[in-house]
């Protein structure tokens, strides 16, 4: 396979999904970082939505993280999607659920008023109840979405869990998983993986908190 080039913004959780996938598969790749607040012209020419991630494979361009990850899964071993069509479809459905969590997480951290931030937190907790019920029981002190093996759907949730942990490491009262033992075990399992640990640059935890503060949100005021 032609050496792919991933276009990234350092703090983007959707890019991080693709990086985890590439690392899990030991794919040799290059990565280019851009500033989304000052998008270069060459990037706007290849990204129809003006968003990251974008994957360049030779002269071809692929955009949207779910599509990029499915392409990588079809072209690089080991396969991280189930073979069974119904199970694969279910994993794709839960990947969309992960995206909804990221949207709520962004709303939670960016809300200007405490009441709005609390509302988004409650929406997250409601989704956690649904997710907790959908997870299997842990085995051997580890837990992935489908039990004991990592799949592509796990790469979709890992960036969300990492950002929860960034907040909790700085302010423990912001940790939302204490009442959800299976989700907590799943988060701990994913965050312990080398592919997840190495999917962001070392400065990202600090810059994530600074990003929240810079937007003058309610949460930024308590961090």
From TrEMBL:
Pfam families: GST_C (PF00043), GST_N_2 (PF13409)
Reactions accelerated catalytically: RX + glutathione = an S-substituted glutathione + a halide anion + H(+)
Enzyme Commission number: 2.5.1.18
Domain spans labelled GST N-terminal: 2-80
One Gene Ontology molecular-function label: glutathione transferase activity
Residue ranges constituting the GST C-terminal domain according to the UniProt record: 84-208
Annotated GO CC locations: cytoplasm
InterPro entries in the cross-refs: Glutathione-S-Trfase_C-like (IPR010987), Glutathione-S-Trfase_C_sf (IPR036282), Glutathione_S-Trfase (IPR040079), Glutathione_S-Trfase_N (IPR004045), GST_C (IPR004046), GST_Omega/HSP26 (IPR050983), Omega/Tau-like (IPR045073), Thioredoxin-like_sf (IPR036249)
Gene3D superfamilies from the UniProt entry: 1.20.1050.10, Glutaredoxin
Statement: the UniProt record of this protein carries the keyword Zinc: no
Alphabetical keyword list: Transferase
Top EC class of this enzyme: transferase
PANTHER family, per database record: GLUTATHIONE S-TRANSFERASE OMEGA (PTHR43968:SF6), PTHR43968
Protein's UniProt name: glutathione transferase
Species in which this protein is naturally found: Leptospira meyeri
């Amino acid at each position: 396979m032609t050496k792919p080039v991933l276009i990234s913004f350092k703090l983007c959780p959707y890019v991080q999904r693709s990086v985890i996938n590439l690392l899990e598969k030991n794919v040799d790749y290059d990565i280019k970082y851009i500033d989304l607040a000052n998008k270069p012209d060459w990037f706007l020419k290849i990204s129809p939505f003006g968003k990251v991630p974008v994957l360049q494979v030779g002269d071809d361009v692929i955009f949207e993280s779910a599509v990029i990850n499915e392409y990588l899964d079809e072209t690089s071993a080991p396969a991280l999607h189930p073979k069974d069509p119904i199970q694969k479809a279910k994993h794709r459905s839960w990947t969309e659920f992960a995206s909804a969590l990221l949207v709520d997480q962004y709303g939670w951290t960016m809300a200007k008023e405490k009441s709005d931030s609390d509302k988004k937190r409650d929406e997250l907790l409601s989704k956690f109840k649904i997710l907790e019920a959908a997870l299997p029981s842990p085995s051997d002190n580890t837990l992935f979405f489908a039990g004991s093996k990592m799949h592509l759907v796990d790469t979709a949730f890992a960036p969300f869990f990492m950002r929860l942990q960034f907040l909790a490491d700085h302010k423990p009262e912001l940790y939302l998983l204490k009442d959800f033992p299976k989700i907590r075990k799943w988060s701990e399992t994913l965050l312990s993986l080398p592919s997840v640990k190495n999917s962001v640059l070392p400065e990202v935890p600090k810059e994530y908190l600074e990003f929240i503060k810079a937007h003058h949100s309610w949460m930024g005021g308590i961090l």
